[in-house]
Amino acid sequence: MAEKEERWLKIELYTSFLYEGMVLHGDLYTELGEKVANAKEPLSKQLIEELKLKGVKKVYYSKPVPKKIKELPEVIKPETLEKGFLVSQEVAKSIEGDKPLPVKDIESTVETFMGEISSSKPEAVLNMLELKEYDEYTYTHSINVSLLSIMFANFLKWDDKKIKDLGVGAILHDMGKILVPKEIINKNGKLSNEEYELVKKHTIYGYEIVKAYKEFNETVQIIPLLHHECYNGTGYPFGLSGEKIDEVAQIVSIADFFDAIVTKRSYKPGYPLWNAFLAIQQNTGTKFIPRLAIEFVNKMPQKLAGEPVLKVGDFVILNTKEIAEIVELSDKSTLKPTVKIYINSKQQKVKFPIVVMLEVDQTRAIEKIIDDEKALEVLKKLSLEFKKDKDKEGVKKEEKNTNDKDITKENNIQNSPNDNPEQKDKNK
What we know:
Layout: E1 3-14, E2 28-30, E3 35-37, H1 45-53, E4 58-68, H2 78-96, H3 103-118, H4 137-155, H5 160-172, H6 182-185, H7 193-200, H8 202-211, H9 218-226, H10 247-262, H11 273-282, H12 290-305, E5 315-318, E6 323-328, E7 338-343, E8 349-357, E9 366-369, H13 373-414, H14 421-427
Helix pairs in contact: 2-3, 2-4, 3-4, 3-5, 4-5, 4-10, 5-9, 8-9, 9-10, 10-11, 11-12
């Protein structure tokens, strides 16, 4: 989406919240307007101590926020996202430095998320993707997963206590990775078997970190532990299957999977939202509990994109490699519309379009939405050709029906009762 102009966002921080090496995205000032640090330069221990000695309790910085041409109401305030990011960063620093977790800050962040989500306008879009401007994926990812999980739990009409536990567990779900060597976590190529086994241990590490705090109940604890379990039993660390996997862990698993797909990383591009929704649908019944995955795919697109994932007139590639046009959407299943197939699996133009209701046909599913401009131009022409052929066929049928009516009328006149000898006899 094109940018029109910039607006500035002021972020306030308590000096007690600052730590050595912290990097901010704007120049840092005291409440009196004195500049004390440059943007994107790590804060020094000496600076932080000097601020505290001077009795400076609050500092602030400003950062530009792009203003989009098409403004949609946002669910989360930009300053709330910013503070959430900083809390996530503080959690990571606490684990790295073997210091106590900021429990109250985590809970307060989740409560704020819950409040803003529940009070948002129906047309508002979940703006968690704004956090993608940060390089620190671990911090961004944990906040996005928490927001997605809370929003989805709202759709499921969970009670506030359960949603809060879910949100807290989501922020902490991947923190065990901090104890796995960074060169493995950030590796661009394929992991070796030994490296993968080390990565898998992050679920145990995360559980042990969270379990040490009496403030975090069992619901919060099982999220880091079980968020990589799969519905078909192929996940880890225990290989649980079906409904044995707690639904809080499954919801975080779906949100984790979704955000990982749409986020750009050093080793892959960020994919469109529809790609993530289709991937969740494709993993329903294998990776994810069907009732939760289907509900996520049906409910979340409007809150994330501000519009349905699929639209009438979109062209898609099916899992059969057939190419089709969406002609009607389904009220029950967002990603299972009615389509017209124009090109078969051998990449040949069909003689007549094949109409398929994907909601009924379980052998076919959408694999990709076509967005290549040249391909779309060709397909639109093909669609128009089929429409013209149908119109011509309709005219021919109408002419035939008219001719048939004329012939029938003529026959009826010729064989009217007055001309029928038998009828004449009866009339006599």
